[in-house]
Amino acid sequence: MTGIEYDDFLDREYDPDSTDLVCTFTIDPAEGMSMEAAASRVASESSNGTWAALHVDEDELTHLGAVACGIDGDEITVAYPAELFEAGSMPQILSCIAGNIMGMKAVDAIRLEDCEWPESITSGFPGPQFGTSVAREKLDAGDRPILATVPKPKVGLSTDAHVRVGEEAWRGGVDLLKDDENLTDQDFNPFEDRLAESLAARDRVEEDVGERKDYLVNVTAETNEMVERVDLVAEHGGGFVMVDIITCGWSAVQSVRDRCEEHGLAIHAHRAMHAAFDRMDHHGVSMRVIAQLSRLCGVDHIHTGTAGLGKLANEDTPGINDWLHGDCHGLNPVLPVASGGLHPGVVDQLIDALGTDICIQAGGGIHGHPDGTHAGAKALRQATDASLEGVPLEEYAQDHAELATALDKWGSETPR
Ligand code: CAP
Ligand code: MG
Phi, psi at residue 38, to the nearest 5°? Predict the structure, then answer.
């Protein structure tokens, strides 16, 4: 017989193995609890321990305990043996590393900040099918940022109005029309009607302007329904789907990823509700980790914020984007999407902060243009062209009227 106690999960001498999943947490131990005691409880509860000392027959025990191996200020490092995890199951991974521990009384707060993913785990996941290559494989954006727009108001437009707005935006120079996160299949704008009519409009515009365009139709629903909607997108000739990855859940994202591969469809990941996990800097799961999970599960685009230039609170957009673009055991990179309060007057600053391998999404910043959606889309494209040519926006606006009007209206800042 052997005893398993909390102390067994703490070893500050342990050097993580290359196959371990290494997680960094910040923790705030409960009153009277040392960092060591709290760290060992985190490692225990997130792997194979419990609150009581156990007495187990050594021959019947597989050694799957995590090791709290680093303590630095309020930061702890925990190494998990790869055998703890079921291959290719994101829910199972999260039930370990972001499960019960989020509510433990041993800590007043705990935040999963970062993960180092070993190949033994990433190899169980598909990663993105296209990732950053959609700019060239599915669109004609080349090396410039992909431009996208979401019609506003976010819900309530009829199908006809929605399609009309999309068509104007495509003709003005955006590459992608996007649904809003809470537009799915409501009576005022049914999914299949919107899909069919938008793609017919896309075909007309492509024919007229000679540039490939596409539609990020929101397939978000209960999983089986969502997979059927993916099939419909393929039947109607779409190239992308959009999924609200947090509200759908990771297993649904994995199911959609599989079906999208059968059809060669790319996935645009909207992260609505992410802030419930990542907004507090002392508790929850960081956006950095949410982005990592999304890459493993295989989305092609994901919203990562605007580096502070837009209307929403952001966590380290440049650092997260670097991770999405960087090496991860051969998984394709993900295209980060900057969105939320953007307009033509901030495009130069955005590209300075985040580079050109991004998607720039503007809703209000296009449709709120004083001369309407078509002019707004032209202004966004002009601001992008100016930034890539290194010409200041004000100077470029001297012979680009739509950009001039946008700059007059919004200047170079986003109001809260
Ligand atoms: C943008 C947007 C997106 C947000 C989400 C909106 O519209 O459609 O949902 O960007 O935030 O409804 O706010 P605007 P994030 O361009 O009109 O602001 O990208 O940070 O996940
Ligand atoms: Mg939205």
Answer: -70, -40
Q: For 313, which DSSP code?
A: -
d(CA 212, CA 209): 9
Q: Which of 138, 213, 268, 270 is catalytic?
A: 270
- Per DSSP, what are the bridge partners of residue 313? none
Strands (E), 20-90: 21-29, 54-56, 67-72, 75-80
308 lines ligand 1 (CB under 6 A): no
Region of 73 please: left (phi>0), alpha (psi -120 to 50) or beta. left
Please provide the size of the chain in residues.
416
User: What phi and psi values does residue 116 have, to the nearest 5 degrees?
Assistant: -110, 115
Q: What is the 78 CA–ligand 1 centroid distance (Å)?
A: 35
CB 4 within 8 A of CB 41: no
Q: What contacts 256, CB < 8 A, 6 or more positions away?
A: 219, 223, 226, 227, 230, 241, 243, 248, 267
Residue to substitute in 147, 149, 150 for testing ligand 1 pocket (most ligand atoms within 8 angstroms of CB): 150
- pLDDT mean over 220-232: 98
Give the DSSP H/E element, type plus range, for residue 301. strand 301-303
Q: How many CB atoms lie within 10 A of CB 17?
A: 13
Average pLDDT over residues 306-328: 95
**Residue 1 scores a pLDDT above 60:** no
Residue 166 structure tokens: 């999309």
Instruction: Give the residue from 208, 165, 212, 150 showing the smallest Cα distance to 361.
Output: 150
Q: What confidence tens digit (pLDDT) does each residue in 86-140 have?
A: 999 999 999 999 999 999 999 999 999 999 999 999 999 999 999 999 999 999 9
Between the CA of residue 73 and those of 27, 146, 235, 289, what are the distances in Å?
9, 41, 55, 21
Give the span between the Cα atoms of 269 and 359, in whole angstroms. Answer: 12
Mean per-residue pLDDT over the chain, rounded: 96
Instruction: Judge whether 270 counts as a catalytic residue.
Output: yes
pLDDT band at 2 (very low <50, low <70, confident <90, very high): low
219 near 230, Cβ under 8 Å? yes
pTM of the model: 0.96
